[in-house]
Amino acid sequence: MHSDQGWQYQMKEYQRILKKHNILQSMLRKGNCLDNSIMESFFGRLKVEMFYRENYKSVNEFINRLEKYIDYYNNNKRVLLKTKGLTPIQYRN
């Protein structure tokens, strides 16, 4: 799992849980935001499109909406100008 060097990723308990699940942790170099620019872009878009100004009644409701958003983001519904009007799957194929 790749992340920045935020305090939450440096916590011993967090690192212990990763290790317990056989997840290798990778952090980007200090001061090098380019390593993480794709994920920063995704999380920025995610917050704008599904988080800000939304009130979720429960954690389960949030998780369900998040799963639907990720499916929308990755599949045949989201058309982008930078992919010449194609969906992400069409562009990759």
Textual characterization of the structure:
This protein has 93 residues and is mainly alpha-helical. It has one domain. It contains 5 helices and 2 strands, in the order E-H-H-E-H-H-H. It has helices at 7-10, 12-20, 37-51, 59-74, 88-92, and strands at 2-3, 26-27.
How do the strands and helices of this protein lay out in sequence?
Elements: E1 2-3, H1 7-10, H2 12-20, E2 26-27, H3 37-51, H4 59-74, H5 88-92
Parallel strand pairs: 1-2
Give a short overview:
This protein is mostly helical and 93 residues long. It contains 5 helices and 2 strands. Helix content is 53%, strand content 4%.
Helix content class? 40-55%
Count of extended strands? 2
What would you report as the Rg, rounded to the nearest angstrom? 16 Å
Structural class: mainly alpha
Shape: globular
Share of residues in strands: under 5%
Please list the strands of the largest sheet in the order they lie side by side.
1-2
Mean pLDDT: 81
Largest sheet: 2 strands, parallel
